[in-house]
Target: Nitrogen regulation protein NR(I)
Amino acid sequence: MTDIPLRILLVEDEEDFRDSCARWLQRKGHIVTALGSGAEAITACEGLQFDVGVFDLNLPGMSGLELLHRIQKDKVDIEVIFLTGQGSIESAVSAMKMGASDYLTKPCSLGDLEHHCLLAHERGKLRKENQQLKEVISRTQPAAQLVGESAAMQAVNKMVQKVAPTDKPVLIQGESGTGKEVVARAIQQSSMLADKPFVTINCAALPEQLVESELFGHLKGSFTSASSDKPGLFEIADGGTLFIDEIGELPPALQPKLLRVLEDGSMRRIGCHKERHVRVRIIAATNRDLQKEVREGRFREDLYYRINVLSLNLPPLRERDGDAQRLIEHFLPSQWHLNPAAHQALTEYHWPGNVRQLINVIQRATILADAQEIMLSDLPTEVINRTDGPLQSRPPVEAVSYPNAVSNSGLNNSGYRSADLPTAKLDDIAKAHVLEVLALENGNKARAARKLGIHRRKLYRLLERFDKDRQSSDSTVES
Ligand SMILES: Nc1ncnc2c1ncn2[C@@H]1O[C@H](COP(=O)(O)OP(=O)(O)OP(=O)(O)O)[C@@H](O)[C@H]1O
Model:
């Protein structure tokens, strides 16, 4: 007796064979509906649910293939096995191409028949799990929505549509926070690989020694902490797209390895001699001047030409006429208002940290503001100062202190009202400080990290976390 009783639909016009198959499968514990024609099978599928269908290929009237076609059209969820005579292997192969799970040549042993039913059921379960996982992944990966209708963004959108259909590498260049990852997702979502994996790695956010193992994987024991075999992101992205963020930070020792994958798809896991082959579309991004990196010997010239087959320059937000306004409308929660002075400050500001900074300024303001109305005083000092006078008059970053430095305006140097401090979470204050320093350094992460007294990689990780927190809070609000 089987532990897993299957619901089997057996369609066979040879009565003796049908009866002996049905009796055998029932004796094995399965629930069998045995019928003699396709028409009866279609009626049965309307009222009952089956796990596996066993169809004779040569049924009178409606053939087995026609039956498969009908149930596929009616979206019946069933795994189908065909029974075929010796001479009709070709039809069985066409049935497999149409989506049948398996075929058996008659005469077959009854043991084989049950074994194939169980296998088909397992395959069906895996297929469903695969579909569910894809669904989960596509729901957790935000759809790439590029807000902005400026001429600059229209040109970017046009370029996205042009480069998307090819399988060539794309290099996206632009300042930090301009939306390079969103553009990479937009390219992938408009490409033929839209339903294939989209895997990302930020070379700057990982310690150097980890970048290699993340990208190429490793074998157990190949270094101290390699406690098990691990596939790299190239293998995980196989058949899909790999987005390599901050490619300018790729350690020199890894650059030839990336070049090899780009040239012929070959790679090796750390500690493994076996060569593997992958087919992955690369989209890379950088906020560095890669040509300068090449000139100064930090980035291989041959790799630069390989990844720069198609390139796309993302303009800074200050060069996108009217987009700051659109982004503010997009990211300001519904029911919230901006008072005119705050609105003016936000639309006049030059956004050195680009869209990321704009989003964070709005988020920070909604934490600080009362009654769903953002006032000028809810904005960071640099945004306020932009409306008052030259940027150079902003206070030096070192003057930012927490928690009680209160100025005449009732704001401390960080722009928080002292009365708000008990309600502002420590994380939010830290986030506001990090973003403020980054903005004051015009988005230059190396300088901002130095000012903050943290390693540059730590800053990258913090910025990624801020983005993730925001995306998860956005999806919570939407759901
Ligand atoms: N045009 C846009 N429309 C909507 N959201 C955007 C747009 N551009 C950027 N964003 C959002 O701004 C944030 C920063 O974008 P993203 O991470 O793509 O920038 P980046 O250029 O890759 O930054 P970095 O160089 O620091 O990695 C993300 O939360 C992203 O969703």
The pocket of adenosine-5'-triphosphate is lined by residues 145-148, 174, 176-182, 245, 285, 287, 355-356, 359, 463, 467, 470 (CB under 6 Å). The domain at 151-315 is CATH 3.40.50.300 (Rossmann fold).
